[in-house]
Every structure is written in C-alpha cells, then in structure tokens.
Amino acid sequence: MDSLCAASDEELLEIEEVGPKVLASLRAFFADPANVARIERLRAAGVSMTSDTWVPPGEREEAQLPLAGRTVVLTGTLSRLTRKEATARLEALGARVSGSVSAKTDLVIAGEAAGSKLEKARSLGVEVLDEAGLEELLADSSAL
C-alpha cells in the first residue's frame, strides 16, 4: 500500500490497465483524508499492507519468459485447444491474456468466426495470428 501511494505517475502508468482515468482516481483516493484514515485504521487492526505479487515497476527484474510483457487477445473459435488451455499455455510463457483489443494489445489470435475484435486489431495494426500460427508460436516458445 505504501509503495502504491508513493509511486510516481510514470510508475503507475506502467502498470497494466492503468491509464489517465485510473491514475486520476488513484490520486483522488489517496488525497482524500477519509481514505487515508481508513487505511490507517486497517493497518492498526493488523491488516497486511504488503503483497508478494506487486512490485513497483522500477524494481522489477525483466522476466525471461518468451512472451513476458506481451498482451494477447483470443478471439473466435479455436478448434484444437479450448480457450482455457490456450490461455494457460500463453500465460505460462509470460503473456497477459486480455478479453479486449486496445492500443496496448501486442497480438491477437483469431480462430474461426472471429468478429469485431479481429477488425479492431486490424484497424490498430496489431499483429494477428490464426490458430496454426498460435500452435507454431507455442511450439517455438516451448523449445526455448
């Protein structure tokens, strides 16, 4: 909690899915004396204000996984893997699998009957792979 409160705007904007609106909300939350008092009451009651999973961006080590830091979106129907299996395999390689396409999306995997997400990816110039491309990506990455 202390790291989050003390983080610079630049550090907060490096966090996945934190943009200007979320940043403004975070700043407003921590500027409100009532919220600060609530946090202190929780701390006094023994609530842990630390997490082993969040590390400020300036303190992160670069991950060695082949898809680390890349955001991938699955769209359409995959015939050889379930969506859950594809997500698990991509995440095991370090990818963050998202449900929506944005300018921060690095890769879209388009199965059969892909619709608006595929169109949005193309309009944004996001790299698109079909299911065969996904299998190739998973095979090549697993060999690393």
Report on the structure:
A four-stranded parallel β-sheet has the order 2-1-3-4, sandwiched between helices. The protein has seven helices and four strands; from the N terminus they run ααααβαββαβα. Strand 1 (71-75), helix 5 and strand 2 (96-98) form a beta-alpha-beta unit. It has helices at residues 2-6, 9-13, 20-31, 33-44, 83-92, 116-124, 131-142, and strands at 71-75, 96-98, 107-110, 127-129. The model has no long low-confidence stretch (mean pLDDT 85). The protein has two domains: 2-59, DNA polymerase, domain 1; 71-142, Rossmann fold, CATH 3.40.50.
As residue ranges, the low-confidence spans are none
Q: What number is the mean pLDDT? A: 85
Q: Approximately how much helix is present in the residues? A: 40-55%
Number of strands: 4
Structural class: alpha/beta
The CATH topology of the largest domain turns out to be Rossmann fold
Rg on CA atoms, Å: 19 Å
In the CATH hierarchy, what is the class of the largest domain?
Alpha Beta
**Overall 3D form:** elongated
What is the straight-line distance between the termini? 37 Å
Sheet-strand content, in percent, reads 5-15%
Q: State the fourth-level CATH superfamily of the largest domain.
A: BRCT domain
Number of domains: 2
Write down the secondary-structure element order.
Answer: HHHHEHEEHEH
Strand arrangement within the widest β-sheet reads 2-1-3-4
Based on the coordinates given, report the CATH architecture of the largest domain.
Answer: 3-Layer(aba) Sandwich
Give the biggest sheet.
4 strands, parallel
